[in-house]
Amino acid sequence: MNAYISVWKLRFLSGLQYRAAALAGLATQLFFGLIFIMVYVAFYQHSTAEPQMTLSQLATYIWLQQIFLSFVMLWFRDNEIFQLITSGNIAYELCRPCGIYSFWYAKLLAQRLSSAILRCLPILLIAFLLPIPYNLSLPPSASSFIPFVLTLLIGLALNVAISMFIYISVFWTMSPVGSTLVIAVTGEFLSGMIIPIPLMSAWLQHFTYVLPFRWTADFPFRVYSGQIPPAEALQGMIIQLLWLAVLIIVGRWCIKRALRQVVVQGG
Questions:
Q1: What is the C-alpha to C-alpha distance for residues 219 and 227, in angstroms, rounded to an integer?
Q2: Nearest in space to 240 (alpha carbons), one of 159, 148, 158
Q3: Structural domain boundaries of the chain?
Q4: Is-annotated flag, keyword Nucleus (predicted)?
């Protein structure tokens, strides 16, 4: 356990050093957040149908996506792990006296946390100061905020567990491009990052409910806005934890299968 905590600390502190990249990402996320909200404001002003989300809830949903983008994006990747697999240097990882799945999981978790910490506070402050309807609203009550924090953290752990399959697939494909595109694009759409799930058609909403992706982003964000009440949030947390356990168990099984077939050439 000490090895995993140590690598988590090292990666977390290392990630905090990339301030220039964080500033560039900050500007990009503010820009896209405003553009997305402007598009939805235009749709809401000219729509005759009654939407399932208010404009205020939608603006909050989008700002939470941008604030916690490092938590929820599946295309966030560690090129060092890809290089270890494709170059054959995975042999050095196998020499460590710890499980490779848990070791990589701790690294990826720390990277996402450090990236989010550098960006979230500035975006949070700016989003709160924007005029209505472009601003980030406060949660309706403390009873909504506490479940939001818990569901967001479980969603982060769930997202890392999903992203681990991208790295595991490279043992067979030897290229991260295909698996990153397929999993990232599919996961981003089904988690509500492109279109919020309440604005999707009914059949597509039911489809997203049976997959793990919506539990990483859509679920905690709607808990924050109060669209999902605290009692329902507690039930959702149980489902999140079940998905997390399933994905970790399957991920560990897959990486064991992959390591049995690893061939490291050279002397």
A1: 10
A2: 158
A3: 2-260
A4: no
| Listed residue (103, 89, 77, 43) closest to 176, CA to CA | 77
Per residue in 131-168, pLDDT (tens digit) is 888 888 888 887 888 899 999 999 999 999 999 998 88
Taking the CB of residue 187, how many other CB atoms lie within 10 A of it? 24
Select from 137, 170, 171, 183 the least CA-distant residue to 261. Answer: 171
Enter the tokens of residue 119.
Answer: 């960006």
Look up tokens 């982003």; give the residue. Answer: 217
Shortest CA distance to 256 belongs to which of 99, 77, 106? 99
Given a cut of 60, is residue 76 above it in pLDDT?
A: yes
Query: How does pLDDT run across 172-229, given as a tens digit for each residue?
Result: 887 777 777 888 888 889 888 888 898 888 888 988 988 999 999 999 999 998 888 8
How far apart CA 203 and CA 84 sit, in angstroms, is 42
Structure confidence at residue 267 (pLDDT):
45
> Tell me, what's the pLDDT at 264?
64
Burial annotation 249-267 (CB, 10 A radius, 16+ → b, else e): eebbebbeebeeeeeeeee
Two tokens, residue 75: 């295309």
**How far lies 72's CA from each of 109, 143, 144, in Å?**
11, 23, 20
175: nearest Cα among 256, 82, 73, 108: 82
Nearest CA to 100 among 81, 74, 125, 115?
81
Q: What is the pTM of this model?
A: 0.87
Distance CA 104, CA 110 (A): 10
